[in-house]
Each structure stands twice: as C-alpha cells, then as structure tokens.
Amino acid sequence: MAVTLDYDSTSHTIDAGGLSFHYHEAGSGPVVLLLHGSGPGVSGWSNFAANLPVFAEHFRTIVLDMGGFGRSDLPVLDRQYPAVAAEGVAKFLDAMEIEAAHVLGNSMGGNVAGHLVLADPSRVDRLVMMGPGGFAVNTFGPEPSEGGKRLGEFMRKPSRDAMVAWIETMVADRSVITDELIDERMANAMAPGVLERVGQIFGSFFRFSDPKPLWARANEIKCPTLITWGRDDRMLPLEGAMFSYRQMPNAELHVFAKCGHWAQVERKTDFERLVIEFLTR
User: Fold this and answer.
1) Rounded to whole angstroms, how far apart are CA atoms 43 and 225?
2) In what order do the strands lie in the sheet with 31-35?
3) CA 276 to CA 34: how far, in whole Å?
4) Helix axis angle, 81-95 relative to 108-119, nearest 10°?
5) Which residues, including other chains, have CB under 8 Å from residue 274's CB and lie 6 or more apart?
6) Predicted pLDDT of residue 268
7) Rounded to an integer, what distance in angstroms lies between the CA atom of residue 163 and that of residue 62?
8) Per annotation, catalytic residue among 22, 24, 102, 261
C-alpha cells in the first residue's frame, strides 16, 4: 500500500541554467519525470499529487513544476513555450545529475516531452504521453475545442464560475470535481503574477511560428512510447491521437473509456497500473 506523501516533505528547489525550478521527489530506482499540463492554477502537485506515492513505490519519481508554473521561474520566451520549456527540463536534469529518465507528460507536458526527446533522444528512456498537446491532428472537430474555449473564457474574465466551466471539460464524470479542488485551483490561479505568466505562455503560440510542428515530426520519435487518451476528452478530442500514433514506430495507444482529459484522476488505478507495467517491462 502506498505511503502518504505531503507537499512539504517532498518539496525541493534547484537552480538550473540561471532559473529556479521547484519539484517534488520521492522513491528510489529508475527515474520517472512527471510533466504536468497547462492552465491557470496548474502545477506538478495539482496534476500528480495522488499518483506520486504509487509511482514512488517503484521509481525515483520527480514531479516538476515546468518553467513559469507553480513555483518555478518563467524563462525568456523567444520561441513557442514547449521548445523553451524542454530546454529548461534538460537543464534541470543536468542540475540533478540525471543523464536519462523515463518521462511522462500530460497535455502541455506531453508537448514538452516531445520536444525534449526530439532535441536529444538519449535523455528519454521510455516516453508516456497523456492526451499530449502538439501531436493532436483534429480532422473533424472544430478549433478551438470546447475545453479550449472554456479556458480562453477564464483567461479573459476570471471567475469561480468560469473555472468550474473549464474544469468540467477536463472530466467525463462531474462527480470527481469537488469544491476543494475548485477552491485550490482558484487560489493558485489568482495568486499574484500567475495569470500574467500563463498569458505569456499561451501568447507565445501566437507570437512565434512553428515551421515544423510536433505532429509532423512524430515519425522521428523512436523510443518506446505509450500514448493514453480519454475517450471522452473535450480538451483534446480522441480523433487527434490517430495520425501521430500511426507515425511513431514504437508507440502503443491505450484509450480509457468513461474518461476525459485527466486519466490520472478519473482512471487513477488503471492508469497507474498501465504506466508501471509499461515502464518495468
């Protein structure tokens, strides 16, 4: 049975490349690096706090606040955020004296993980991507997605109701959304400077072009890869998974029924079992 791990006992900071990175760490063994998704009030802890004790039973598990999120510094954004963030992750691994790790990325974290492995394949042993941004090619669904619209509405006019509307698009089962969750996300989102930083991060996608997007480079990712997707994902619809998955030579795709964008929450036990099995083959 997984032990209880709290925020303070697992919390650490380290300087890397002139920036301060905040992370949580527990466990021993092969390194697994968890990269969270995006949005106001998001951090590594908010995405993976409940999963950390389980993974820590099998791995040295590191939950990172990517640059500009949580308690990590925002880097200079001279390109689209995922490319800059991936460089930051590489510098973080250098500072931690970790040559290579298994990497698990959720949504934006999957986007960053993709940039990391493409920049230097030797840094990533096995790759897990959960509804990854940047790889989705939506042939039929409109852009932005329902979740993207709700997120944009919150960014333009923050309110508790707008936060609830956005979070509801993250899940298939509304019952997993508690008042405590909404209160925590609102407190994090409305903390000084958070919305400004998130605005800069999202704004980088409009300020800078991407001459060769991730989905067009999917065939270059050779490492063993597990892609998971929620069948009822309203942020990045399932149809977006098919093109990139078909292009990756060593990828497997697992689709969770009765699940939205947060497989680690809605299908927690099944998600953990699947990932642990994949990483320990």
Assistant:
1) 24
2) 11-16, 19-26, 60-64, 31-35, 101-106, 124-130, 225-230, 251-256
3) 13
4) 70
5) 226, 228, 254
6) 97
7) 28
8) 261
Q: Are 115 and 132 in contact (CB under 8 A)?
A: no
For the chain, which residues score pLDDT lower than 70? 1-3
Tokens of 43: 């951090």
Q: Are 106 and 36 in contact (CB under 8 A)?
A: yes
Count, residues in the chain? 281
Count Cα atoms within 13 angstroms, Cβ side, for 142: 5
Beta strand residue intervals within 66-167, DSSP E: 101-106, 124-130
Half-sphere exposure at residue 263, Cβ-oriented, CA atoms within 13 angstroms:
28
Q: Cβ(204)–Cβ(111) under 8 Å?
A: no
- Tell me if residue 12 is catalytic: no
Identify whether the C-beta of residue 220 lies closer than 8 Å to the C-beta of residue 247. Answer: no
Query: What's the whole-model pTM score?
Result: 0.96
For the chain, what are the domain ranges?
7-279
CB 48 within 8 A of CB 27: no
Which residue's entry shows tokens 């709290």? 6
CATH number of 7-279: 3.40.50.1820
pLDDT at 1: 55
Contact 20, 14 (CB under 8 A): yes
